[in-house]
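Why does residue order matter? Because the sequence determines the fold. Keep that principle in mind as you read this record.
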Amino acid sequence: MRTNRAWAALAATIVLWAVAFPAIRVGLAGYGPAALALLRLMIASASLALAAPMLGLRRPARRDLPLIALAGLTGMAGYQFLLTWGEVHVPAGTASLIIVTNPVYSAVIAMLFIGERMTARQVVGAGAALVGTIAIATARAGVEIDRSAWVILAAAVAFGSYHVTIKPLLSRYSGLEVTAYATWTGTLLLLPGLPALVQAIPHATARATLAAACLGVAPSALGFVAWGYAVARLPVTTATGALYLVPPIAVVTGWLWLGENPRAIELLGGVLAIASVAFANSRRRPEPDPQRKATELASPANSSSDKVH
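Structure:
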């Protein structure tokens, strides 16, 4: 029963995070990027604050506040603002295809700043993912679209930085606690956009405001709660591998909801990007030891009479 619930939580996470990309486009019809990113995080912060007593969130230690601030800057304020800004001109599905490359940038940043070694697979995967991103960025004519695609790439790098930043925090706090701390911090960092938000609210359509509210409650709050539940009960490789389903669902949702039609080169670039991330995160099987294999085959336990056919 618990496993079934974990699978349900994982499926909910994938759908909620995929729908976020077209929902941002809907919200941008009534709000500017800074205002929409702030409104989304404000709603997410309020939702997490209300749920904090039920979820058993603890108060963070003072020594961890600098890392929490950096996590809020990279994974919440920076990522949300850059992604929202980029989607002004980039279709939702296309944006999701770029964002999915963030794990390879995590590997590069970890190598540069905390001394983690990159495997040959990660180096090849990072290069191929960048090629896929370039194909996506140059698929459509127009300088604004090209620039916006690079802004979304910056969002992917920011999110990759977030994964590296929270690594030491996850040894002392739960994933849900780290998410809550980063969300609250990111909201504070985006408060300079409050005047723009106040001006936009009276003129925004109900559809845009509803999209912003859904972004805050569903992908940002419920999505991370469901993700934490799933990761705690399923193999990490299974859970993270399932995230490759987010871009295809986002592309289909953008087509059904907004009438967006990704171009063939964008889809090819996206497939290359997803395949590159999967390749970079895969592990090469160790070569079998011939001597050990011969010993095992020669042992009585492996005789044909003992095997079940």
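The radius of gyration is 22 Å.
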